[in-house]
Every structure is written in C-alpha cells, then in structure tokens.
## 1
Amino acid sequence: MSRRLVGGVLAFCLSAVLLSAAALAATIDPASSTIGFTLKTRWGQTLHGRFPRYEGEIATLADGRHQVRLHLSARDIEILDNPNYTRLTRGPGFFDAERYRSVIFVSDPYAAALMRSGGPLAGELTIRGRQQREVFTLSPATCERPAVDCDVVATGSIRRDDYGVDRWGFALSNRVRFSLRVRVQGALGT
C-alpha cells in the first residue's frame, strides 16, 4: 500500500472518530438551565448569585460513561438585585473577572446511571487559575431521561480561600454554595 493511500486512510479514520465524538456530546441548554450560587454575609444576609452566560456539554465517552464540561463567564456574574455586590464579585478581590474570565468545571467520567440514581460527582474546578478537586452531589432524577425530560440537579460547597478569593473575609463567609439545574439540547447517548 502506498504512503499516500495509508495517509489518506488514516486521515479519513481520524476525521470519522472526531465527527462521531462530536456527535456524542449534548450541549447544555442555557434557556432551560440555571447555574447559581449563594454567599452568606457575616450579618446573616444571604446573597444569591448566578452565571447568566456559560457554555457546557455532557459528553458520552467511547466506553459509555459521561463527562460534564462547563465554562462559566466570570465577567457576567451577577448578585441578584445588588449592583454593588455584583461589581465587587467581578472585581479583583473576588473572581477578578478581567484577568480570569472563566470558571471551569470538568467532571471525572461517570456511569450514566448516576444521573438517575443521584450521588457524588467529582471533578476539577478552576477559579482564578487555581485548580482544585471538588465533589458535587447529584439529586436522584424525577424522570427516566434526566437532562432531557427533567432537570439534573447538583449542589456543592467550596471554600473561597482555596482559590485565592480571600478578600472581604470580614464581610463574607468563606463558604460558597453552588446549585445547578441542567437540561441539554437533544438527547444523551447511553
């Protein structure tokens, strides 16, 4: 077999693999998903925040397991009904959104059944360029096709100082609680 033919066959095979991998990722639907968080002030007030802009997918891997990949825009983060806290949260003392434009989460591969049964979902969370292992908890599904016919609900708590978000300690608790309600566009592979 000639080198040119072998090269052509390899290029075709690589293209087919890449196209099939792309077809196995379901995009998170921003119109029907919400990604939020809460912070507590030292005076007992609860601040509710959200990430209005993000990109993400739930990929179906070759072995049938799934993997979540999220990129949340720190530049667009909002503290609901509070422009002053929104400005502080985007600023250098908190997310430093001008320097670190995204909060990124990539889960470990997990069995598809986890979305139905619920349980721990571990992965790597990156905030302000610092990467830490975190575990979020998925709630048991309320339907047969989670993320398609009902929300996948996940919650988790992180420590701000693990990511260098250590300013405003006199005013804000160190704990940030994340909450996600996710649906995808299209169907998930099994």
## 2
Amino acid sequence: MTTPRIAFIGAGNMAASLIGGLRAQGIDASAIRASDRGAEQRSKISAEHGIETFASNAEAIQNADVIVLSVKPQVMKEVCLDLAAHIGKQQLVVSIAAGISCASLENWLSKPGAVAAIVRCMPNTPALLRQGVSGLYGNAQVSIEQRQQAEQLLGAVGLALWLDKEELIDAVTAVSGSGPAYFFLLIEAMTAAGEKLGLPRETAAQLTLHTALGAARMAVASDVDASELRRRVTSPAGTTEAAIKSFQADGFEALVEKALNAAAQRSAELAEQLGQ
C-alpha cells in the first residue's frame, strides 16, 4: 500500500498525537498537512512535526487521500457542511469526534447520488502517549484499501479494532473511551486509602501507580485472562482474598456494569443530540 496523503481538520491534542505517531512510523512530513483556526496552534504543530498547515480547511484537503475530522463535536456539523463541496469521491473521511454518527456525517458531507466513504473512530486519551486503543467502524462505501489506511492511522497511536456494527461504538465509548477515568478513580481511591492506613501520601501514590502499571503489563503479556491472573495472586484465607471478598460483598461487578451501561446510554443520547 502506498503512503496515503493525510489532511487533519483541527490540530488539537489528539490530532497532534496521531501526527506524531505517523511521523514516528516513518511517514514523511510532506504526506501530512493540517488546518486549524488558531494561528498559534498552526505554528506549534508545524514546528513540532515539520508539516504544512493552513487556515483554510478546503485548502488543506486538496489532493488528500484521507481527511481526518478532529474538531470538537459541537462544531462538526458546521465544518462538514463547509467541506462538503470540496470532498472528492475517492477521499476517505475519518472522524475521531465522539457522538457523531456515520448517518449524520453522510448527511452533512455527501453530494446528491454520491455517499462519502466514512470511518468513525473512538480513540482514548492514552493515545497521547501512543498507548491508546480505538474502535473503528466503516460505512459501506469504505474500500479494503481505505480500511487499511484508517487502521494505519489509528494504529500509529495504539491498538485499532474494527467493529461489525456502528452501535457498538457506544460500548467502546463505555469501556475504553471513558475507561481511563475509571482507573484514575481507582488510583485516587487506593492512594487515599493507603494514606489513611498511615502511609505518606507520596508513598501511597507511587505504590498505587506502579502496581497499576505492573498489573496492566502482566495482563497484556499473559496468555490467560484476568480472572485466572486474579486467582493466581489470591491465596486462600490471605490478605488479597480478604480485599476481594470485601469488594464483591459490596457488589463490585454489578457496580461496574451499571456504570458502563450509564456511559453507553449517554453516548447514544449525545449522538442523537449532536446529529441533529
């Protein structure tokens, strides 16, 4: 596959992360360009990555193979309506904006008789460290080569997983899109509990952070699932078992399920509101 020419509409943190990941993969700066309303942001991203930047979205997408919509969901409709007349039938549109459905993007971007090729993505914030995970869904107009292009794009900042149904984006949002905040909450709670047990706050924080990091690395590297890993470190009648039983007695699993359902429901609600 030849290197696609990629244009970013919006040059914020996630766009900068994707651009940095692509450059780290060896993609030449001449194959990447970006537009942004802010002159300071254009100057910053150009200096950091050596790419060409534009104030005009229409100029930025000229001759691009892939157009990445990385603007805030609240302005997506306006941006798409302005771009619609300038998008060619061979160009792939990749949206990394939360809560904007393919149907809405098709409605805003497509010309009469020609539906735009669209891939909708849900990345998460660890993508800023190239440790992210993204769920991807493509509409019927996306070709095999364009799927590869989208996967290369999101793969530059972590793991990219394809979904068979668009509605599963809401589940991805609940699990991984919002997921980092759940772990931050657990880290926050464990640090506070450690401090109450008498540890200095900095010590409690370091113990918690590195335990989280080590556990995640073990889980990723392991050939068994999380339940088996938990069983292996839970000695009968030991300290870990006492903590696990306390979690479960208070309905830990049900609480997590309820929280993720709330996130998925809110994701669906936002898609409906923002798509109008």
